[in-house]
Amino acid sequence: MIYVLCLFKANLMELKFIKNIQFTKLIKVDGKLKEFNFRKPNGRKEGVFTVDVIDDRGNRIVFNMENLEGHWKVITQEIPSWITGTEARLEEIIEEEFKLI
Asked: Does residue 4 sit within a domain?
């Protein structure tokens, strides 16, 4: 029994947990509330957020935001102007979430 415990201790692995960020916020756009879903595979400020929202026709629009020169910017091409018009508000929401972590 002592031999088994020593063998077990010798084979311990170090586990690292990386916190995923995932949250939803309602934002008023053109007089209507839109549900924006934010996802990021790690808790660092570097990297890309994937954001999705549903348009008035029920189509899901998925786009990315990246921290460029200290500001979160929409980096996906060909998205509706009502989304790019909310970029400053989306940046505020992302920064608020990082304060909570």
From this structure: no
